[in-house]
Amino acid sequence: PRCSVSSFLWYSQGPYPRYECTGGNLRSGNLSAPASQPGKPPYAFGTMANKKQKHASRNSYRATPVATKGITDKKLKTKLKYNERIVKQAQEHAAKVNDWLLPETAGSLEAEGLEETWRYKQSDVIAAAPTGVKHKVFDMSLPELGPYRLDYSRSGRFAVLGGRKGHLAMFDCERLKVACEVQVRETVRDVQFLHNETMFAAAQREHVYIYNKQGVELHRLTEHTNVNVLDFLPYHHILCSVGKAGILRYQDTSTGQIVATHKTKKGECGVMRQNPYNAVMCLGHVDGQVTMWTPNLTSPVVKMLCHYGPVRSVAADGTGRYMATSGADKTVKVWDLRMFRPLHGYNTPAPASWVDISQTGMLATGYTRRVQVWKDALSVKATSPYMNHEVQGGMLHDLAFRPYEDVLGIGHRGGVSSMLVPGAGEANYDSYVANPYATKKQRQEVEVHQLLDKLQPEMIVLDPESIGHVVKEPAEVQKQRQMEAELANRAKKKGKTEEAEKWSKMDGKSKPTSQQANRPTRRQRKQLNIIVERKPSTKASIRKGSA
């Protein structure tokens, strides 16, 4: 049975509304509101019930305290009590910090009884949504300029669209206001925001162009030719591209210099996605391999055979633990990036052309005209999808979750659409990282701080935690180095001994003869000549004095 509109209850805890679907009660963690009060929040801020519930939630994840009543050793008993008091204080402090900094919790759709969440239609979810959320779902019909690629800014406030037939547009997702719109009159293969919403890059027919938020062309990157996919590393200010020649290029957007150029030697490449955890670029190839690249090495740091056919799409979660890939063999596989081995896979009726992972770990797959969203499908294998949606505009061409919002953007042949995915976005945003409501002055200050804190390309490694650590060599390598040092010292000592013996044989030959010993030295001869020259004058002066 399908869930009716009356069973949807929507409640808000701050600027981001969260919602749940149940057969009777509205649930939020351990809290529940009776069905006789539809639409009422589970608790009100500032009430005594709210405080009790918060304290109950604090103690819910605390381990059982140590029982010190039966301990006879006074020293041990005092130490255990002190440790328990410290743990309790730390837990209360952490709970207060969470209440201040993380007041929001991500909601979700929950079914009761025989109901299934994947049976709910978007029309039912939108009908139960408040007015502030309904406008986030839109459907742009642009059949003459598609198919479309799209990308969201880091804050999720702006979106940029790129039509295959030369249409570029950027608009504000909150106000639904177009910021700029331009027709470049040539093929557009991909679009990508740079460090913020003031600039975006477009991969056009021959080169990559950079535009500002007014749609004015700022730069033409002639080194990037025939590009298929673009990506941007925000902490390094590096724009990455790969295209028909299979050449991966890194270009620093703050200085304009080419950082690195790598030849993949695997032909044309149209699949590229960065790992947000370590900024390593993941490329999918037609031979079923996924290669991982850094600007420091000319060869891939990792090679993985993921599919028995061309790789269609790649996506990595924010923690860097999991990676999802889709191939032409009609499978979507989840990989553990810590051990580089597959965890599980999902079969699709048709090859999945696009996959994406949300901030909360939801997996979205798209094939033909259907979009499937899987919840908790990375660490464990899900038995059924979380949501289903069929696009009416045409074949899918791109998927992208909107940051900090429960929205999934869909680019297709007929234009651009969006759908609500409860619980997909992060409920609490960090204003120092991405602020959707930043003013002009705040945006300028953040941009300056980003340039000052920019990381160098040499910092991109497979394991970022290894930076700053001293790598200890294995015992075998240390023993081998020690033996080599001993051999070198022995050879050096032997050479010195041989040289000393050689000079000792010349001792008899180097001694002066008896005749040579009686001869005066050069200094003595010089002094003797001086005395001989002065001798007559000395005698004459002595005679005069005596006379």
Describe this structure in words.
The chain is of the alpha+beta class and 547 residues long. Helices cover 24% and strands 31% of the residues. The protein is built from 9 helices and 32 strands. A 4-stranded antiparallel sheet has the order 5-32-31-30. A hairpin with a 4-residue loop joins strand 1 and strand 2.
Describe the sheet with the most strands: 4 strands, antiparallel
Structural class: alpha+beta
Kindly estimate the percentage of residues that lie in beta strands according to DSSP.
25-35%
Determine Rg (CA atoms, Å): 38 Å
Low-confidence segments, given as residue ranges, are: 1-61
Principal-axis shape: extended
Overall helicity: 10-25%
Order of strands across the widest beta sheet?
5-32-31-30
Mean pLDDT: 82
Number of strands: 32
End-to-end separation in angstroms reads 154 Å
Tell me the number of helical segments per DSSP (H or I, 4 or more residues long).
9
Question: How would you concisely characterize the structure shown here?
Answer:
With 547 residues, the protein is of the alpha+beta class. The chain contains nine helices and 32 strands. The strands form nine sheets. It has a four-stranded antiparallel sheet with strand order 5-32-31-30.
